[in-house]
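INFO  loader      accepted 1 record
INFO  loader      residues=413
INFO  predictor   begin
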Amino acid sequence: MITITGLNRVECDVYHVPLCYSVLLQGVFVPSITSMPSSSNIAADRAAGSAEWGLLPGRESAQKKQPRGFQIRPLQVTWEMTKACEWKSGPARATVRAARETQAVSTAEAFHLVDEVSSMHVPLFTLTGGDPLLRPDLFPIIEFAAARSVRTSLTLLPTTMLEDSVIGELKACGLMRVGFWLHGSTAPLHDGCSGIPGSHRRTTEIIGKCHEEQLPVQINTILSRRNFHDLEPMLELLTRLDVALWNVIFLVPQDRNHADDMLDAVGHEHIFAKLYQASKRVHFQIKTAEAQHYQRYLLQQRARESRGKLTAEEVITCAPKGTSDGKGFVFIDHKGDVRPSRYLPLSAGNIMDHPLSELFCDSPLFVSLRDSSKLKGKCARCPVRNVCGGSRARAYAMTGDLFAAEPCCAYEP
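INFO  predictor   done
INFO  writer      dumping tokens
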């Protein structure tokens, strides 16, 4: 993810920069709970990720090859708590499925994950799903995170389980922010994209309850050909809803055969221009996901707006490395597999077999993604490759090559 409103590397979410740095400087001791029993003790035959990229059991860590420390810690860890959702299978079946999936990452292992996130001083820990409310240990996990000064965000769906009282309970547990999905400014557009009638109305209603509890709200939107024309109405709606953050996710298709809804390179540039202008006038923060080349657009704007005081080369030289797949973001799926992106189906290993810090710092997958010399095509010769690097998830989906050029970038180096 990158922040649209700033040109510096995103070290932290804007709502807790001081806290993160104070914790970093104080070196707070966080007690370990590694002795707690977990299902991993009896899962000796579990493979840690894919054979190509994962750290296989018994394989030596590559930690000596890279310096360990805060400079390569994740800036955000997102955990998919469950895949279950009553919208997909009905309340009864969803509850049974959630109970079964909870065993994949047990409560004890979830506590251990929080402990690792705390010890790594990760600025933001995001819980998502499926429907996280189907996990009976959701509230204890949030309380556990809050007790260890882990800033936690939770993405929810407006299912029947999301009653108004739940928002107050989440706030009391120490939740920092709650997120919802809105793919359109109107009910027909959003409900059409989500496939759930009434979800737009219920989402806007529950946001009002969040404001009553003084719980900041984040809105996530997957941008595609179906809703890109709705940008200005969305900005107006989010202004009225008084959200704290808008996370704009540029569509990554499952594969090239499902790419009809994906915006092309020209479309990306068009949206970049609109978001950049919007960021100057709205009161909420705007972020992008799977649009790493927006950082290149930002640098170009900075050079233009300097009125000759800065050249494009000077701006690029001074720019810090960007946050991309494998460079600051970690996604943990409902089975515990650690991936560089929610949209990149490659695993570095499993948190029940290896420490999260080891997988992020030392696994072949994450190490390779941090090496810009592996990029191919125009990304390989692009002067902004260390700042951008393109969406590796989109490149993989469209070509099957993890290091292929970003398919939706209009820039020609």
